[in-house]
Write a sequence for this structure.
């Protein structure tokens, strides 16, 4: 089975027995440790390597120190789980070591970068690809459950893509393909859906504190609201799940909100309100009225 660019259908993976693949992960950060824990749970033998020691689950077999991992020539698949800014440097170090063999596959975990980040390894003859789980993995203990049912972007040489699909399937991930020129938008979408949702929750908590609640009480009060919003999104789509003053075309409420906020908060609120207007299903007159209220709020600050 082959992917067409932008394909988003669920892919059934005919995986080989995990015992046939020995995996090595370079970078025991959140993504690396989470993926390592999940792959161990799926039955794969996993070795990890990091520069500086840190606390990791006992199930992970980790080596520490600078340079190439001591196990590099003993594994079948090498997953580079360092930060995006360090992937090419890590690939160069591996290439310079001369230890990577043509029988091996190297995958990076970046959602943003394409295969050019692994270009230094081309001369080794190994298969190159990428596997990016579309899921936040803050805790390696909970990573296996979080990955099950999520999605992953895979790319690369044919044999590397086959192995990336196998690993994804073993973790319960569905696969999609993103062309190289679409990766910045794909990754930005992931940041909006994950990272910036967290930022918005923190902004909401701060406003609740200014309303008179303690930080703990503010967060407890917001949790059910956040959970309900996510449940509504999962059950439908953004257009249906949207509620609030924009949907009601309530410009007076927007004005009062803006007056109560700091300049930075109001700027963010205004941008989001404008983005909400096309989702709200309003008529041209109502849209124009809300835009005027947002402008008036700007003039008043």
């Amino acid at each position: 089975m082959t992917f067409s660019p932008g394909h988003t259908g669920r892919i059934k993976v005919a995986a080989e027995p995990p015992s046939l693949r020995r995996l090595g992960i370079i970078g025991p950060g959140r993504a690396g440790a989470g993926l390592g824990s999940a792959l161990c749970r799926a039955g794969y033998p996993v070795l990890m390597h990091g520069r500086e020691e840190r606390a990791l689950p006992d199930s992970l077999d980790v080596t520490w120190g600078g340079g190439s991992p001591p196990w590099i020539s003993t594994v079948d698949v090498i997953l580079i789980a360092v930060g995006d800014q360090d992937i090419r440097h890590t690939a160069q170090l591996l290439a310079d070591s001369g230890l990577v063999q043509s029988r091996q596959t190297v995958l990076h975990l970046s959602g943003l970068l394409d295969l050019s980040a692994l270009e230094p390894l081309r001369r080794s003859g190994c298969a190159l690809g990428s596997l990016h789980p579309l899921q936040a993995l803050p805790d390696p203990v909970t990573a296996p459950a979080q990955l099950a049912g999520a999605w992953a972007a895979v790319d690369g040489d044919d044999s590397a893509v086959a192995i990336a699909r196998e690993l994804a399937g073993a973790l319960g991930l569905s696969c999609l393909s993103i062309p190289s020129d679409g990766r910045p938008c794909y990754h930005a979408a992931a940041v909006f859906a994950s990272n910036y949702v967290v930022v918005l929750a923190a902004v909401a908590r701060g406003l609740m504190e200014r309303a008179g609640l303690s930080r703990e009480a503010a967060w407890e009060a917001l949790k059910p609201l956040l959970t309900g919003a996510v449940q509504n999104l999962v059950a439908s789509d953004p257009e249906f799940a949207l509620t609030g003053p924009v949907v009601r075309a309530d410009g007076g409420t927007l004005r009062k909100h803006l007056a109560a906020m700091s300049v930075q908060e109001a700027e963010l609120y205004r941008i989001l309100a404008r983005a909400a207007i096309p989702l709200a299903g309003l008529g041209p007159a109502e849209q124009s009225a809300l835009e005027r209220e947002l402008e008036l709020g700007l003039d008043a600050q």
Remarks:
- Residues 1-17 have pLDDT under 50 and may be disordered.
- Residues 38 and 105 are 19 Å apart (CA to CA).
- The longest strand covers residues 127-133.
- The beta strands are 23-26, 46-50, 61-64, 77-80, 105-108, 127-133, 151-156, 174-176.
